[in-house]
Records
---
Amino acid sequence: MKNIALVGAGYWGKNLARVLGELGRLRVICDTNEAVAGPIAEKNGAVLVDELNAVLEDPEVKAVVVATPAITHFEIASNILAAGKDAYVEKPLALDDRDARRLCALAKQHDRILMVGHLLQYHPG
């Protein structure tokens, strides 16, 4: 079931797109750079959109992976959780602990899963 969206198809996002594509779970990639993200979306069987609202309003998307510049993580993750979707955010979760705690509270308030990426924590080795 293709029910995961990826926000950001740059340096690290392209790797996440590949893994999600291999799992058959990648539904949509959200990125404003069509020249870079378009081929990644096509290769991984995903639709490309350039607006986060398209992801947030898609009822088929149940979870969103965030691989954008760190300065955007708090705002994007807040919107994802408020939209009732689970979120996996590449590290750092936020630029300060106050915002990280606010994200945790928002996840709890909306009964959503919030995960932060860590290269080795989710590696099978």
---
Amino acid sequence: LANLGILLNTGGLGNANNFNTAFLTDLSDKGRGSFIFADTPASLEPQLQKRLTECQAMATENTLIQLIPSNGVIIKGFCRYRPEYLPLEETAKNQLTLGAIAANSPTDLLIQLEIPPAEFDQPTGNKDVISLELTAKGMTNPVKATASILYTTSHDEAQKENKEIKNDYYCWLINLTSNELSRTDDANQQKELLEEARHNAEKAGKTDMVNQINQQLDDLEKSGKLDPNRTTKLLRDSRDLGGTK
């Protein structure tokens, strides 16, 4: 159903003690929808309206992306980051199923690669590291693209980073830790996950997220446990980091 654009959204309303956040998140991930959390009916309405608008503007169905790494390149991980974070799984070797893609907002994927160092006698310059082929229902020919990396002996060139992609990567890590946070009751592990998430939020310049995490660390220090509402709100908000600046 998700491949055809029928997305499954799940919602938790009221006190997060009264529903299973991890289960609802897993369910919406499988349905390629969104997990919605609202403590009051009034705050639920705009979130539902946002999802309805997205579902009414689908550009493609049954969208597949085939990843073709160059020789020696290893694919370490991937996720959808925009319009909202979504963990992805392979449906075949190096193949990702995106299902339906919205027409009213960009869809961005993050792909983590391990790239081998240049060999001693290898010339410098741009080298292709991965190719992608996108297909969808009704498309006659796949859309193709290639990414490359610069092999260089210049220290300054080697230290250059794309700040936007780096920040997106930090937010990807925040999503991984906030997801784990909703699945553990161990106070020591919770503290480690929160500190890791705060570090990445600081790196990405997400001040509001840093403040949320600091509140949870304060809760943990004072009471020895986390507030389920704040933990669930962190998970929900972390998934929307790609839509905030």
---
Amino acid sequence: FIILFLSFLPSYAAGNNSINVFQPGTKPYGLTYEEHVQNFLKWVLSLPVGKNPHDELDKNPWNDRTGEDCASGQLDTNSSVFYLSGNGGGVDKWTCEVPAGKGLFIPVSMVELSLPEISSQRIEDLHTQAKKDQDSVRSLYLKIEDKEFSEEEIRKYRVHTDTFDAVFPKYAMFGVTKEGPTKAVGDGYYLITEPVPKGNYTIIYKSSILCMGLDCTEQSFAQDITYKLIVK
């Protein structure tokens, strides 16, 4: 019984200001990793990007260069986790204020596909293309404070979701022009931490993809993200 109990404890990230990470197969805050990933992607898709560059209505973290929009759509919810972001590729260094007592959702590598984003309009193709995208990941990196995670360890956190419902706003992400409900799937590598106490933290994550074939969502992709978190 003791061994069984310990297997569900979060792994421990050693070092100063250590942050515990929930192991794969557990239920952080009462939800499976897949359920958290679906909620994260619903949040991503719900945020408008604005109709023009630098549009004041654009509060999507994907287009943010400083971190000022990191909490968009998150402060007035009862979610137990705070979502960190992707950036669509490239290098970004963000400073972000986070409410104390929430876990962190870290998308080291991610892909989302919805019906408006593919030509076939077939659910099975969403799954096939999303899987191929993340099958094509060439590198993964995560550092939380002074704890570095090996690529082998990060690969244990891969999640491919079932089909889920999402809603695109006007001026949606990923070039989608059709506002309203849709079906979507997700894949990728995601880690969730225990509640983070007040303090300052640095989290760095990187990923790269090299995909061959006409059915790739992107043939070449790399992101390099650094968060300076002010938890208060």
